[in-house]
Amino acid sequence: MSVSWGFVSGRRLERHGLTTPVADVATAARAMCGTHAQVLSAAELSIGLRLDGGTRQDVQDALWSDRTLVKTFGPRGTVHLLPTEDLARWCGALGAIPSASPFAAGVRVTPEQAEELITAIGAILAEGEFTVDELTAALGVRVGAWAVEPVMPAFQTLWPRWRQITHLAAHRGALCFGPNKGRNVTYTNPARWLPGFTPAPAAESTAWLLHSYLYAYGPAAPQHFARWLAAPPRWAAAVFADGDVEEVSLEGVAAWVNRGDMEFPAAATGVRLLPHFDAYAVGGQPRELLFPGEAAKRALAGSQAGNHPVLLVDGVVAGVWHQKRSGKKVAITVDPLTALTTAQRKELEEQADRVGEILGLKPSLTIDKVTVGPHA
Length: 376
Hints:
16 strands
């Protein structure tokens, strides 16, 4: 079967909840295969844009009141919001990805030390919510001075040695985020509200994750799956080889979908505003089709997606945008790469209104050059 990029984009928009809104916050996070949340306000906007009338408060309620979402370390070892219902399978799959430490021998945590640290972290966090400093102090008592020695280079300072395996502790099910204490993040053990919690078996979890990924981002190839997870390419290729998948031709290049999943109902249409690190832009491949021509220069940082909020036109990146909040207002500036039609301009105004609704702010829209850099 041969499929064109326009129909692939249309399918992804629909499955991401960007064409037809989804039912609730957890479903929105599941539709994206996890919501990137290094910047929580961007994650709130990503989810809100996939809901009918939802706001950022709905995301906060799902995290800290309803517990239908969990904030933890997901794909690429970065902070994500994941459906609590899926957490065991996420941990089972992410914990199965081979990893190698990037640190030098004098800094690196050995596999044996990692096991000791993960066990200790799980036991400590089972008692409550700990800031980084509080957890560091507790590990120093329980494990020893080597665990908390400040040797890990990070942001022009040195972090305690144990912090290099924070994401591994999360992938093993021993750690997730708790609510902030003032301006400080906290960690806790998910078993505190999920009694008996443990990661699901690796093989079934990995098969589930591949199926979920291809449903949201297919057709895709093993190298795309590897990039999305920051996983070894050989491992990703082996997962595809064992998966229940079948090959299609995407613009003349081999790609794969879940077996029997051959529905491509309509080509992409419409205008969308996506925030920093929205999953549609970060996970979508091939990158050269999603960010065609000038869009790659304008909206990518090197080869990395997500650093700029993007304007989508008919499913592909066609510009960038910026928001500036002031009091109860948000000024939205959109910088399209080509002139918008009257109909597209109307859709853009509707998108700006929706952004304001999600944020609880009064929006204004300007079409002009965006001069700020990445992450602004």
